[in-house]
Every structure is written in C-alpha cells, then in structure tokens.
Amino acid sequence: MSNTTPTVEHREFQAEVKQLLDIVIHSLYTDREIFVRELVSNAADALEKLRHTQLTESAVYEPSLALEIHITANEEAKTLTIADHGIGMTREELVENLGTIAHSGSKTFMKALKASGKEGTQLIGQFGVGFYSAFMVADKVDVHTHSWREDGEHLCWTSDGATGYGIEPTEDETRGSRIVLHLKEDATEFAKPERIKEILAKYSNFVGFPIILNGDRVNNVEAVWLKNKSDVTEEQYNEFYKFTAKAFDDPSYTFHFSADAPLVINALLFAPTQNMEMYGMGQMEAGVALYCKKVLIDPNPPKLLPEWMRFLRGVIDSEDLPLNISRESMQDSALIRKLGTVVVKRFLKFLDSEATDNAEKYSEFYKNFSRFIKEGAATDTDNREAVAKLLRFESSMTEAGKHTSLADYVTRMKDGQKAIYYQVAPSRGAIESGPYVEAFKSRGFEVLFLLEPIDDYVVSAMREFDGKPLQSLNSDKVELDETPAEEGESLSTEDSDTLCTWLKESLGKRVENVRTGKRLVSSPAIALLPEGEMTPQMRQMMRALRKDDELSAPEVILEINPRSALIRNLAGLKDKDADTAGLIAQQLLDNTLLSAGLIEDPQPVITRSLQIMEKLAAKLN
Ligand code: ADP
Ligand code: MG
C-alpha cells in the first residue's frame, strides 16, 4: 500500500542463487579457505572503486577514513569479520549484488561447478560469485554497510544462506562494508588469527591496500610489478622473486615491463640462477602467476606461456582480463593467448639483448638453462626464430668451451657457403680428429660442434636459421664445390667407377650407394646418411625407448677418396686377391661407420681386423 521502501524486509534469493548456495554448502568441502581470498578481493575492489569515486565526485561520506581492510578473527565468538572503508552498498545495491547472480552464463556456471567436484572452490571466484563462498564456512553472514553516498542508509543484510535474506536499518555504520561470518562448528579454524594469516600470505599478499589482522599489518609486500622501474631497487626485486618463487637463490635475469597496447600489461619475470630440474627435482610447474589489478587469478596458469618457459617465475598482471575468467575458458581464450604472445615476444627480445650485451653472464645462465632453450627451439614453432637466437654452441672457430650464437655464425659465412654446418658428437676432440670436418675446414667453412645428444633433435626440428638450412656434415644433402687444388696421384675416373661398382657389389645391402667424393682430403672414405636415414642420436633414443626391438642396420652412402693410397691400392688388389680385397672393403666400411657413431656391436669388426692382421703378418713373415 505504501510506496516508500519498507525499512525491514525479507526477500527470497533468486532461484539461481538458491541452486548455487545448495551446491556450495553441500558439495564443496575442499579448499574452503578460498573464501578469504574472495572476501578480501571484494573489499579491495570496493576500496579501488572508492578511490575512483573520490576523484570524480565532489563529496563522499566520511571522506577521511583510511583505505584499509581490517580483519578480526575472534575465537571466542567464533566469528571472522572482514571490514573495508570502500564504496559500501545502498539498499538497492544489496538486493542487486547479494541477492541475484548478474552473471549471464550462470546456468553454464552451475553445471561446471557441479561437474568439477574438487576444483569447484577455485571456480567460485573465477565466475564472479565469490561472495557466496562465505557460506561454505558460515551458517550466518551479516553485511553491515553504509554507501559512499552521503544520503545512504545504515544497513545490515543478514542471511543463513538457505532461502533468503533480510535487510534491516541499523545505526552508526561507517562507510564501506563489514562482513561478519558466524562460523559453522566445523569451520572454527577460521576464527584463529594464525590460520587467517597463513591464508592471507598465500593469496592476498599483494593486495594494494593495507590488510590489518587483529590490529597487525600483515601484507608488507607491495605490488612491485605495478611500480615504476626506477622506483624499485635490485634488492626489492630479489626479495620479491624469493617470495613469489619460494626460492632461495637470486634471479639471474629480472625483466620488468609494462605495455599499453594491444593490452594493458604489467609483467615482472624472473629467470632463476639455479635450475631445479638439474637437481633431479622432476619437471617444474609453470610458475608465472596471472593477476588482474593485483588480484590473483591463477598462481600457475598452464597455457599462458609456452611449456619450455616453465623455469620462469613472476607475475603477469593485465587490467584487460575479466576477474571472473574461469580456468577452462582461460586455456582457450583468445585474450590469454594474446597476453602470452606479447609477453613471450618481449621477454625473448630482452633475453637476446642481455645475451649480446653481456655474453659472459649469459653463458653462465646458459650453462644451467640450455635445456629449456633447446626444448623451446625444437618445440615452440611460434617463437622458433627468436628462441634460436638464444642458442649457443661450440664451433671450429671458437676455443674449446667457448660458444658462438647462430647469428654470429651467419656473419662469418663465406661466399658460396650454402648452409650452416654442424656435427653432433660426444666431444670436440671426436669431431676434430674425425674424417668429416676436413672438407669444411679446407674450404674455410665454420662447423658447429653439437656436443649433446639432444642437439640433434633440436637442429632436426629447426631445419634452418635465418633462411639458411642447417646441415649435418654427415648428410648426403651437403653440396660442396670441387676442392680447388687436387694434388698428388689419383685414380682415373674410369678406375674409380669400376672400384665403386665392385665395392657396391661386395658390400651388398650394407650400403645404399658407393661413389667417389669431392670432400675428402686425407681420409680414404666416409659414410654419409641418405635423406630419411636415422641419425646415430635417433638410433640411440630409439634403442632406449624400445629395448627389445631390433633396429634395422643403417644403410649408408659410402664416399671414397680416389686420391687416398689405400683406395688406389684397393683398386688393384681387387683383381689379384678378391678375398683379401673383400675383407678390406668390409673393414673400410666399418671404420667409416665407427667414425659416424653407427656401430652398435664392435665384435665383428674386431674379429675381421684380426683376420686382416693375420694375413698381413703371414705375408710379411
Ligand atoms: P564479483 O566480485 O566477481 O562481482 P562477488 O560475488 O564476489 O562477485 O560479489 C558480488 C557483488 O557484491 C560485487 O560485484 C559487489 O558489487 C558487491 N560486493 C561484494 N563485496 C562488497 C564489498 N565489500 N563492498 C561493496 N560491494 C561489495
Ligand atoms: Mg568478488
């Protein structure tokens, strides 16, 4: 009858709120502590909004109140109170904000929540219904409030989280909201200050407003990443790194950047000094947390950065993220992808310039983290070129133990050099004394020395750098020009051809082809891998993976050197003593396979070499 708002009213919750509360109270019991984060971020939001309001409105209620969050844990009364001096709520706002779910996809949300079981508590905040998490731990919640508006009412909203709520006028409310949780019998742990302190440290340490728990300030750590670079000391960075990464070392690299376009981003990334994966700690988890305006959205979002960057620690904060983004939708959200892309590009650029400016420092870092860089160069197709710039290898033009980048290699490439050449081998010595490198050295071509088995996988995946193909010295694909000067005796083309045909016949299926080569200088022969043939490193991996399966024997191309004395003599011997020539041919092939790292069982090689020695000894005796 009356058209004025009744001062005391009782209302039903919106149907969806009832459903939600039912799930929250009856099925979500794990991780209940999350409600602290939700209520504290609501308080922080309300303070943030007040800050804006103060800038735009001429007057607010109780303008001198400090922008703080006060938490009181009262064990005796079994209550937990979270109070802020933020914008507060009017009667209409109480009804609108706490009695209904504004979320448009609330049906989907409800389904997801029901289906997610244990994960459900995480979802609550991410879907923007955080306030109701209070009912996981409380059987009665009071919200005392006074709006920032000077003509606002003093109100108390009360609910048992079942069917509805009441709103009553009160007196002497201060501006903002004071939320009192009357804790359930099984939730009295949340009336203990130590317990709340622990939860605050976990989730709300970087809230940008002071949090005061039972009179003590608890969040000393500021949102370092939102500060100006020039206002943060190295010490502060390091401290923050240790805090956020739960680390004990100092960061090797600290990258602090902000961007306004295409997204508003504040990021603070750290590369550790120690690689925990090297200490046998198992695969690291992604450790760059996602924040939206200082409120933690996800401590380790799985797909924000490429997997190989899992060693990074720190924070990415973007104002453009909706606070209520869910873990699921986050993984395939275009926004998250964009955010990740921007940050990754900037970080890689940063690391590249650091590496160039201070090569020594980078080399220290690379010692511990090359595994990740290599993994990235092999797997991160979106950023491959940028990651490849960070690779370092020894080469025929570096001192032992010193590294070159691929970019520097390219600047040293000779006229007519068609590819970036490399050899994978267990040691520098093995390459330098082996038969492959001589042809490249004699032409002045630099050769990268890839000394880890994983390198083979990396360069195979990369295929090229800066538009130049990466080629292994033992690849059949390598094209070299004729050696300029051919000194000394050599088989005639005809004799060479006959010898090749004979070798092919006597070696049978062990070779795909035999031919004379241009690249050999002093060695009699080398084995080359035809396209598609497994490299020694791949074989090693296959053997490790499938222990029982017999791998087919390698089928190589045998390239012979018609200038070598052994080859010249073999051409004659095959017509006089085919048996001995046959033995030598087999041994020659085995020697090349040994150099190539393709001999698995040395016994037949040893047996045959004994046979040859026996013949030689008999002959010379
Ligand atoms: P969200 O914070 O994602 O909007 P919540 O369920 O946590 O969802 O809160 C619902 C709404 O209630 C908020 O959007 C806000 O308008 C209001 N609210 C909650 N807590 C406070 C508070 N401490 N001060 C003012 N308004 C609040
Ligand atoms: Mg909220």
In words, what does this structure look like?
It is a single chain. This protein is 39% helix and 18% strand. The chain has 621 residues and is α+β, with helices and mostly antiparallel strands. The protein folds into 4 domains: 9-217, Histidine kinase-like ATPase, C-terminal domain (Heat Shock Protein 90), CATH 3.30.565.10; 224-357, Ribosomal Protein S5, domain 2 (2-Layer Sandwich), CATH 3.30.230.80; 393-473, Rossmann fold (3-Layer(aba) Sandwich); 493-545 and 553-620, Heat shock protein 90, C-terminal domain (Four Helix Bundle (Hemerythrin (Met), subunit A)). The strands form 4 sheets. A 9-stranded mixed β-sheet has the order 1-6-5-4-7-3-2-8-9, covered by helices on one side. A hairpin with a 4-residue loop joins strand 5 and strand 6. Helix 1 (15-27) packs parallel to helix 4, helix 9 runs antiparallel to helix 10 and helix 10 (359-379) packs across helix 15 (453-462). The radius of gyration is 36 Å and the shape is elongated. The model has no long low-confidence stretch (mean pLDDT 88). The site of magnesium ion (MG) has 4 residues, from helix 2. Residues 38, 41-42, 130 line the site of magnesium ion.
